[in-house]
From TrEMBL:
Protein name, entry field: DUF3429 domain-containing protein
InterPro entries xrefs: DUF3429 (IPR021836)
Keywords for the protein's UniProt record, in alphabetical order: Membrane, Transmembrane, Transmembrane helix
Top-level division of the source organism's lineage: Bacteria
Listed transmembrane segments: 46-65, 131-148
Native species: Histidinibacterium lentulum
């Protein structure tokens, strides 16, 4: 197993910023108020996490689709079919109130990690993929916890 390339690591970490900001503004009423007044109410608390999380699940569907292109036959067909699950999950399950949407979003990210594992097991993802995805997913789930609980 190798370390992820620096650009992948840095961009992955940067991708956590909306989740971290959402968690901070959920836990701090004064920061929430400042953020809502400065950035708008859509960019604080669970709202930024839920919107951005749905976007990221859809983005990750595209990543998995790209992995599926690295194979052929029935494995490719399975890969393509599996790759659309995160985007469909985000579309169908992140619509309710903040608590239920965050719960479903967390389940979507946990499920995505299982899909990542399967694609890595098939040898379609780079060897650094799972360490990167495991760390990023753990932080996303921790950031969603204040909204869920």
């Amino acid at each position: 197993m190798t370390a992820p390339p620096l650009p992948a690591l840095l961009l992955g970490l940067a991708g956590l910023l909306p989740f971290l900001w959402g968690a901070l503004t959920t836990l701090s009423p004064s920061l929430h108020l400042w953020g809502a007044q400065t950035l708008g109410p859509r960019f604080v608390g669970p709202y930024v996490q839920l919107f951005y999380g749905a976007v990221i699940l859809s983005f990750m569907s595209g990543v998995l689709w790209g992995f599926a292109t690295r194979t052929t036959g029935s494995r490719a067909a399975a890969g393509y079919a599996l790759s659309v699950i995160p985007a469909l999950w985000a579309f169908f399950f992140t619509g309710g109130g903040p608590t239920s949407a965050a719960t479903y979003l967390a389940a979507g990210f946990a499920g995505l990690l299982l899909l990542d594992w399967q694609f890595a097991r098939w040898g379609l993802a780079p060897d650094w993929w799972m360490p990167l995805r495991t760390g990023l997913t753990a932080i996303v789930l921790l950031c969603l916890a204040p909204v869920i609980f």
